[in-house]
Amino acid sequence: MESKVVELEAIGEIVRDGDSVALGGAWLCNHPMAAVRELIRAGRRDLHLLSLIGSADVDLLLAAGAVGRLTFSMVTLEAFGLAPNLRRGAESGSLELEELTGLSMEAGLDAAGRNIGFMAYPGLGSPPTSDLVKLNPEVYGFVTDPFTGEQELVVKAIRPRIAIVHAWRADRLGNAQFDGTFGIDDDLAKAAEIVVVTCEEIVDTEVIAADPHHTKIAGFLVDHVIEAPFGAHPTSHVPCYTFDAPELLDYATVTTAGGEEQERYVTRLAAESEREYRDRVIGSRGPVLAELARQARVLEVAR
Amino acid sequence: MSDQETTVSTSDQEIAELMVCRIASEMDESGVTVLGSFTPLAYASYMLAKLTHAPDAYMVGYNAMGMPAVELAFMGAEAAAYRGSTARWGFIDNVNVVHLANRGNVEAVSSAQIDQDASINLSVIGDWNRPKVRLPGGVGAPEVVQNYRTMLAYFGRHDPRILTEKVDFATGGRYPISAEARRARGLQDGPVKIITPIAVLIKTDDGVPFAIESVHGGASVDDVIAATGFELRVPDDVPATTEPTEEQRRLIRERIDPFGTIRFDFMTGAERAGYLREIIDREWSRAESALADAGRVRG
Questions:
Q1: Which residue of A105, A299, A300, A303 to mutate against B (max B Cβ within 10 Å)?
Q2: C-alpha angle B162-B166-B167 in degrees, rounded to nearest 5
Q3: How many alpha carbons fall within 13 Å on the CB side of residue A246?
Q4: Taking CB atoms and an 8 Å cutoff, what residues of chain B touch A178?
Q5: Is residue A71 helix, strand or coil?
Q6: Most-buried pick from A39, A68, B181, B288 (CB within 10 A)?
């Protein structure tokens, strides 16, 4: 089989304007940020983003004007505050939003991965305890359980055209390993039509085979493999580096200000290569981010 | 509670520690405890329980199954969760068997609002279609509060706009609440508890208001009633919430939370920015010193 390895720049061709794109990672962990930056460099527009727990990935694409629609269960900058561009888009009414509960979004993706039309989703009781059910009749429905006769809540399959996830390492065939946070990245790879894996490092298949228990995504699911060191920065990629808190604090400050300040931030990102981004933003700070991931303590429990 | 006991004003740090201990007391070694979205005070509770009365409690953080107690370094805690954990599971595997299959024991949630029916709002202030404030969304919180053994909700402020008669939007909630009705539906049968800087409230039955379980932080029953936007039941005897022991306070300050992340829950956005920079600088300097030391050893 031919190698699936392509350069980061290929993201701009793989993803077309208007595509539905699911992004991996969760909270401030392991979002495919190099790919996000590349989507901005390529000038993609009108994307339908899907994000279970987004942060700087979703907010930055919103800041760049790349998003037409967002399906999500959470988008937050956590300690750094609410996501400023989600707020602006929602509060001005300019952004089309589809908000789902976390487990129903997962169930819908799970259904897509199994190639079935919908999934039973019993998490909210009866009547459902979330107003999100009434708000989204095109996603949630009810069926009669043939065995008990009870009404059961179901969620429609959620099938993104493209999933982009960031792995620890992968081989040329897309067998992808993770040792830290991978959220639902494995299930996104099952649910999407086209799967792009960016990774810290491309390695020989022998390296993967010597340590198969870290493989979370099987190669046959993957279409494209891209090497992108610090590809989750400024979010974390454990075990390699933590999230870059000083950078995220700057990001939150700039995007909260919005306007020209935010425009300059996005324009600069769009104009530089990924290598230039790493040199400018990470530079000599890389080893500190790696040390931060090593030094936090596990606490001994007295027994 | 007598007047003498309410005259001492208690610091945010001390109140936060009391809340940590109160939440920790809900944890035991049955079921599973899950670290939810950024809730530092709750995280500290889980670590405290692991270090004291529930060392074998099964804890999940991120994709780290069976994670150990870790230092709540602001940047480093995620990486620490993986060291010493016993498996890596994807979220879908994890939530299906924990949240949906009655294995959830403790996950304290924090939301923008909670109401008299125990609905929580993590979605919007105002109208969903044109909100005054767009909030982050609830991710797993709706399923957690509906299905876990006890619904635990904590708040950094006790305010009638937060503890309100009716939430602007129910991102999630718990129904039914009465133990018998829950058992009949195959659900775990614990109550709803709200933990705030001045009180613990408890609701055990649908259609019956929250009751004041205990008060703390120098607050009186009247203070609690005035700060709550819905009707409260006041038992004849309202005890003071149990104070942390010196050992609990020491564990929180010195081992679990040396950077002081639990105080985030009490801060407004503006206060938070300055405090964040302070915490970040301290953790960053510690890493730089470690690197410098390693360099000297190598040199």
A1: A299
A2: 60
A3: 14
A4: 63, 88
A5: strand
A6: A39
ipTM surpasses 0.95: yes
**CA-wise closest residue to A163 among A139, A138, A179, A186:** A186
The shortest C-alpha distance from B282 to chain A (Å) reads: 11
Q: Work out whether strand A151-156 and strand A118-120 pair parallel, antiparallel, or are unpaired.
A: antiparallel
Name the minimum distance, in Å, from the CA of A201 to any CA of chain B. 19
B80 CA: distance to closest CA in chain A (Å): 6
d(CA B227, CA B214): 15
Nearest to B71 among A90, A99, A297 (CB): A297
Please tell me whether residue A224 adopts helix, strand or coil conformation: strand
CB-CB neighbors (< 8 A) of B83 in chain A: 298
Summarize the confidence of residues B227-251 as an average pLDDT: 98
pLDDT of residue B7: 37
Give tens-digit pLDDT for B165-207: 999 999 999 999 999 999 999 999 999 999 999 999 999 999 9
Reduce the DSSP state of residue A298 to 3 states and report it.
strand
With contacts defined as CB-CB under 8 Å, which chain A residues touch B137? 72-76, 99
- Contact across the interface for A86 and B134, Cβ inside 8 Å: yes
d(CA A34, CA A84): 21
Contacts of B142 in chain A (CB under 8 A): 101-103, 123-124, 129-130, 132
Closest partner residue to B79 (CB to CB) among A78, A178, A242 is: A242
Whether B133 sits inside 8 A of A87 (CB atoms) is yes
Collapsing DSSP states into helix, strand and coil, what is residue A253?
helix
Q: Does the distance separating the beta carbons of A27 and B37 come in below 8 Å? A: yes
CB contact under 8 A, B172 and A129: yes
pTM (predicted TM-score)? 0.96
A8–chain B nearest CA distance, Å:
26
pLDDT digits (tens, 9 = 90+) for A126-171: 999 999 999 999 999 999 999 999 999 999 999 999 999 999 999 9
pLDDT, tens digit, 9 for 90 and up, residues B62-87:
999 999 999 999 999 999 999 999 99
